[in-house]
Here is the input.
Amino acid sequence: MGSYHLWHPCYLRSGPVTIEAFVTAGDALLDPRGGRELTTAVLSTIGLADVVARVQDHSLVPTRTPYFGSYRDSGDWRDRWPEAWRWRATLRPGPTPALRAAPAGNRYDLDAPGVISRTVGHWPCLLVVDAATETLIERAAAVIEAAYPGADIERARALDRFPQLRVGLGDHPASWFEAGATEAEDLLGALNEVGASTSVDGLMRSPFVDPA
Amino acid sequence: MIMSLDTFTYRPSDIDLFGMQTKSKTWEPVKPRFVPLLGGSFIVDGIPVSYKLEGSAEANSSAGLVWGPGRLHDIQAYVTGREAERMRSIRNPLKWIPPLPGMPPPVTLDRPWDTKPNGRFGADGMASFSANASARARAESRLEAELGVFGGLLSAGAFGGLNTSADASARTTIDTFVTATYTDGVITLTAVLDFSAALNLAFSVNAFAGVKVELRLPEIPVVTDLTHRVQSWPIVGWVVPDLSKWRWRKEYRKDWPLFSRSYAWNLAQRFEISAGGSTGSMPETEGFGMDKLLRDVEAAQQAGSLKDDPVGPGTQRRNSDQGAVSAAKAGALAGISSAQRTAEREKKANQRLLARARKAATAATPAAASSAPGAAAAAPPAIASVRPAATPVQQLEERGGKLDDATKSVAELRAKTDALGAPANAQDGTTRNQAQSGYDSVAANADALGDAIDDGAQGFAIPPAVEPADADYAKLKEAMHRAYTAFDEAVDPIRTEKLYADDQVREAGSSADLAAYRNAALTHQSASGALWKRVQKLESDLERAREWYEKGDFALGATVFTELEGTARRATTESSVLKANRPVGDWDLDYVELDAGQLVLKSQYRGKATRSYFYPHDYSAGTKARMMAEIGSFRTEEGVVYWEWRGGLSSRGDHWWKLNDPQEMPTLDHTAPTVLGQWNSAGRTTAYAPRRSFYDFVGAGLTVVPKQRNSSAGGKEPDSYTPRVTRSFRGAKT
Here is the structure.
């Protein structure tokens, strides 16, 4: 298992050519450390080592999202809203290589430098929403826009197949998460009600990954 | 003109100089200039398409003139000298001289008889005409494109261009002073007149460019073969595969209103006129200043972006459902089986009819047996136009030949079906889609063949001459047709159910864990087997009834076939009930399947995927806090943070490991047991909660090691996760 895990690398659908992926902690105790070394490691891991020289901008933003967590039923708010890092790299113009199919388990193992966790005090609240069909994802988008008119919605693809929304609900302090992140939890409930999935484990289950 | 006092001004009448005249001119095109139209990349259905489009724009201009009619008016000839005196004298008043007595009255006419000046004098006048100048300027473009489509599923092409043109016209009214010469009443003049027409060219330039993206369809020889129709097949009107439902093509286009701008063009015009005519020309050598236009166009270009298409060809088109392919294959096989049965059945019936026909022919006259092989060979070649009507024997022989061909066609369809096996199991969905269309086509052809035989179409009809002309016989045939149709509808589902039951009994094996399921499967097998036997008997009954009743007692035969039809329909109903009551395993059907007497993970969950799917992928916050506490001490040296791990020596020969280094950072390691060990011993028999507790070290001590010493680091983790699970295993992370 990797020190870190890399999830859902995907070209963003707006603006210049930008690849986005999520980094979560695997075996590592430390947070992933951003920078050129991490970007190189990420691109190599997902098979895009050839474009490293064309990276003109990259970033690693810590967020809190329930999507990747394995302990949603925990009493600890840090388990319900664990950290995940949103990594992005913008490429200079040129041939855009295709992303290869996701590996077994739909995640990549990533060995990259770490850094001792820094207390930032507030995090962007991120929801990741998957659906089996475009119709369903549009229904989910409508739910989000109704609840959060200013939500930052990025459209992407999960596993190169399923429509996915990456939804930024704004920065919130630790106290907001600790108090239950009520608005976000309500939105998660509403999304689940319309049939969307809001966790990576949900994505890995039927009907998304049909054994047939 | 300054005139002396002795000058006489003579004013001739107006003169028509020339009629309507035309002239046109086109200037050489301005050389192409490359301008970027579009560039970047966008994503179609998850597949990036990169593009770079450049347009080479070139431009030209043309103009035309229409002028006339020309007229010279207000002409004045300036007469001098004695001729002037003479001309003036005719203006003196007449003098009245009183007549003398006895003398005729004198008459003095103080005027010359010639009222026009004689001689050559200077003259002038106003030349007038109108001129209409029209102009056209336009830019054309060609497109150069570079495209890259990744993923192999899509192909792309590019298009684009500039749409622009402008027209203008201007009217000039010319009324200008010209000098001339007066010679004995004739005016001559030669004048070169230069004017310019102010033309206002209003350009509205639109650029458009885009990419056509198409779902690439693979070339599968067997499908192409079906598409092109195999002429050797004896049945006409074959159904070819319908690939259109898999095709997808879309244009991604961007339009830019680059600019809307007006340019003034003072088109130079030159007219050379004389009393006898005129010429017009446009003396400019460069035409309208198109360079300026192209520069402006280029400056107005902006890199455009094409919108992503999240839907694209759609999942169905590019990623065929394996289940649908399997269903199509099953449909093809069922169709083939049905056509085969029908062909064989009719061959038997035909043989019976043929034997009877030959017997009847022999009894009637020896000559009628001329259709015997030897006799046929000795007969002279028949001429089509005078060919005698075929005998019943010949007709039945011909029908027999058609049925033999039908059997061959069925075999060919079966071979096509087998050949589709490889594409049907291909990795890429588009190939599977084509295979599915191939299967559909095979099924449609098999159905068409079976229907043709059943309906007596396309040469499969029993010759009327060998059938009794009896109303009851017609009823018999109708009842028989219905019975056979009902039988065909019953066979496939019943056979499917029997095969399914056989499979389940075999797969259940002898494991005690699966005894309950095996018993249920055996019950299902028994019921479906019994039903299958009834269907086989039904087929035999149908055959015997046909053989018997086609000889006579047609009315009773119709009744018998109606009863057999009812039997077939009841069997179909029973098979539906059987299918609805298939035995269901009590294991986790989402993740587990039955295989050779064992419960195993479905293939996509095996190997290293087992850990990903059935264990957490992170640690709880509490465990992370415990992990930090496990690390004994830290130290910083020259800005580098080290942590202490006494389980081994670092590359520096001490127990201090770099905290930030990807290979030396602290990680949690599962060692007692490893994740693999836990799965093989316990995890594969439990629900998710115990596996999660194990993974998160609940109630267990932590092992913190440098990453390079982690048992799962660097591919050291084995993938020997057994796929075997038990009925109590539950995969879902809930």
Summary: Residues 592-715 of chain B form one domain. Chain B has three domains: 8-315, 320-366+392-580, 592-715.
